[in-house]
Amino acid sequence: MIVTFTANPSLDRTARLEGGLARGGVNRLGEVTAEAGGKGVNVARAVHLAGRPGLAVLPADDSDPVIQGLRALGVAHRGVSTGQPVRANLTLVEADGTTTKLNEPGSPLDEERQVALRNVLLASAHQARWVALCGSLPPGAPTDWYADLVRHLRPLGVRIAVDTSDAPLMALARHLPEAAPDLVKPNSEELGQITGTDGLELERQAAEGNWSPVLEAARQLTARGIGQVLVTLGGSGALLVTEEGAWHAAAPSITVASTVGAGDSSLAGYLMADCDDLPPEERLRRAVAWGSGAAALPGSQLPEPSQAPVDQVHVTRID
Predict the structure, then answer these.
(1) Contacts for 72 with CB less than 8 Å, ≥ 6 apart
(2) Is pLDDT at 89 greater than 80 in this prediction?
(3) N or C, fewer C-beta in 10 Å, the chain?
């Protein structure tokens, strides 16, 4: 089973614009959709669409639209009541695929509910091969909460993935190697944050086909105890660095409809491949295929296996 932990879930509303975003003007929206969201929730949804066992752990009342949405989709979940509504995020998708996200901070999570949520996660982890700690943290949660959760999960023998950014990611870095997860999944900006390098320069170099700067930054993390570093690079594909070596996967040619959930789908593809005991290059191939499948779909839709172009992803060993 793949268990996901979403400390700051959301009701994700996605609206399409017929043209470009007119700042300071009137923008008329086209189709508007709403889905249960948050990074870990998206991973759980992708796992469910693949027919694989998964469980989403999140703070939300049983009557909240996010829980109702998961129930309607048939996604297994365990919630901790908060007495507050889950935040609502808005994503604007322009005609050329440009995506603008407007995210609320989320409802505060007090210490009592933090402990309750941690206990639900630890109880659920006994059934899991992977636990994925995903997304931002809500107000009230300590920035080093993911590091603390890694330390609590480690004795259970479960594999741990972390996909976050900004203060929680940098707090995790401060606790390495003691709180090193088995996998992190940064994009170029996040890789820059956790290693103290220029994320924009990493992205530029990757776009030019120079993988050395990204490879060097990722190896800083494996040297500090993180077993696997999956760096997603958008149209430049993705890089996987482990103790066994390093690989690059080129993204297939697709028409980007929306980037919402693409990174989360990449993580889901990678974890499912690991559950099948596939080698590193095949785990990377499926990560890029699932991420590309999500990017080709409108709004916040996530791909089914038939929509993940595995056969179109070319993987090269680069070390």
Answers:
(1) none
(2) yes
(3) C
What per-residue confidence (pLDDT) applies to 301?
87
Nearest to 134 by CA among 56, 230, 77: 56
Question: SS3 helix, strand, coil % of the chain, rounded to 5?
Answer: 40, 25, 40
Q: Which H or E element spans position 147?
A: helix 145-153
Closest to 92 in 3D by CA, of 165, 8, 32: 32
Place of tokens 């030019």: 208
SS3 207: helix
Paired sense of beta strands 238-242 and 228-232, if any: antiparallel
**Which residues are the active-site residues?**
264
pLDDT in tens, 168-182: 999 999 999 999 999
Q: Pick the closest to residue 236 from 172, 313, 153, 311 (CA basis).
A: 313
CA distances from 211 to 7, 196, 241, 248 (A): 33, 17, 11, 8
Spatial strand order of the sheet with 99-102 comes to: 29-37, 10-17, 87-93, 99-102
pTM: 0.93
* CA gap 191, 16 in Å, rounded: 30
Residue 97 has pLDDT above 80, yes or no: no
Closest CA to 144 of 305, 286, 7, 310: 7
What percentage of the chain carries pLDDT values higher than 70? 100
- Pick from 71, 46, 69, 65: which is nearest to 295 by CA? 46
Closest CA to 310 of 279, 287, 277, 294: 287
Q: Which region, left, alpha or beta, applies to residue 186 given φ > 0 means left and ψ of -120 to 50 means alpha? A: beta
- Straight-line distance from the first to the last Cα atom of the chain, in angstroms, rounded to the nearest whole number: 32
Q: What is the DSSP letter of 235?
A: G
Starting at the edge strand found earlier in the chain, the sheet holding 54-59 runs 77-80, 54-59, 2-6, 130-134, 159-163, 183-184, 228-232, 238-242, 245-250, 314-317
Q: Which residue has the higher pLDDT, 93 or 148?
A: 148
Whose CA is closest to 2, among 148, 179, 160? 160
